[in-house]
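**User:**
Make up any protein.

**Assistant:**
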Amino acid sequence: MVKILAHRGASKERPENTMSAFKRAAEVGADGIELDVHLLCDGSLVVHHDSKLGRCENVKGNIYDFSKENIKSFSVGDWFSRKYEKEFIPYFIEVLEFLKGNNLFLNVEIKSDGIFMNNIADEVVSLLEKYNMINRCIISSFNHFILKEIKEKYPRYRVGILYSDSFCYDVVDYCKAHKFDAIHPNFREVDKNLVKLCHANGILVNVWTVDSYGDFLRMKEYGVDTVITNDVTNFKPIQKYTI
């Protein structure tokens, strides 16, 4: 069965990467959630997509200029609806506390466009260890150096490479060479042959971001392992009645 992960939480119904979005994902039956993690200047881990603030909040600036104490000084839900004006950037530990009460799988995407990245791998894994998440998570990133560091230091953790259509390596050979566990491509870059080749080499295929009925069914036919979507409710009933 294809695993369904809620992209930044149930982001069609709730403001992305907020506790409200993660709770809604659980309510509508997602198999797991995908989220983005940044390391702040004081070493705190927070959940947010953009490093440059302004798209989902009424403040401008770089997320890395904030500390744990002031990162919650502005709303990240008001842009979506006044109903969510009390939604603030979650600490990563808040999400892990929430996950203690359910069986949701976790896809942690590590963001790496800041200047405080030297120990982000250690910080992320340290919290995952604290909450016993090793069998309930996968770590992904466009920064493959971070993923290489994780596989070298913490080989039991699963990692998946995010990459663009300009990626110049054979992804299967690349994963085998670095002992990566999965590929996380845009679904438009996936075909049945790629999935078959990955599976033959023990590599998972987790695709993003699938929001249409037809695209989901095609990915399911190809045999992908995970579909990441903004709209979980669009696919959970489909799985129930078409498998």
Observations:
- The chain has a mean pLDDT of 94.
- Residues 9 and 22 are 5 Å apart (CA to CA).
- The chain has one domain: 3-242.
